[in-house]
Design brief:
- The chain is mainly beta.
- Helices cover about 10% and strands about 50% of the residues.
- It has two helices and ten strands; from the N terminus they run E-E-E-H-E-E-E-E-E-H-E-E.
- A five-stranded antiparallel sheet has the order 3-2-1-4-10. Strands 5-9-6-7-8 form a five-stranded antiparallel sheet.
- A hairpin with a 3-residue loop joins strand 6 and strand 7.
- The mean pLDDT is about 95.
């Protein structure tokens, strides 16, 4: 599968919670980080998802927000702590890479103004924030 999304993480389904229309899929990466995805029950069936199955979590870089708050209280299910390893500043946007551990890199594309206002620097410990509805599941 070739896709344009910058963030593709391999993991194992550790929990499935079915609702009437949607389902919550929780997968665990090799470094122990858990990522939550909300997808349709139909997608669960089409992908034949079961606990223990190896899958990919796919997240567009534009769906990743970044915060330097230590005790962030927010409704997003995925708050992934990491260290900034690279900042590539363009004219309008900045690409920020976070090392989540064990070479798991989360890439975020934020506005240049946001990067400058918060004054992100390489080495800063921050959180990548992703809503569960922004995490796609693939095989």
């Amino acid at each position: 599968m070739q896709i344009s999304a910058r963030n593709v993480f391999s993991g194992k389904v550790v929990e499935l919670v079915a609702g009437a229309v949607n389902a919550e899929v929780i997968l665990e990466l090799k470094n122990g980080i858990k990522i939550v995805s909300i997808i349709t029950k139909n997608s669960i069936e089409n992908l034949d998802l079961k606990v223990g199955k190896e899958v990919k979590a796919i997240i567009k870089s534009t769906s990743v927000m970044i915060s330097n708050e230590k005790d962030l209280k927010i409704s997003a299910r995925n708050i992934l702590k990491g260290k900034i390893t690279n900042i590539n500043k363009g004219v309008v946007s900045a690409e920020v890479n976070l090392d989540l551990g064990e070479n798991q890199i989360l890439t975020s594309l934020i506005t240049l103004n946001s990067a400058q206002d918060i004054d992100f620097k390489v080495g800063d410990e921050v959180c990548g924030i992703i809503k569960s509805t922004s995490v796609m599941i693939g095989l």
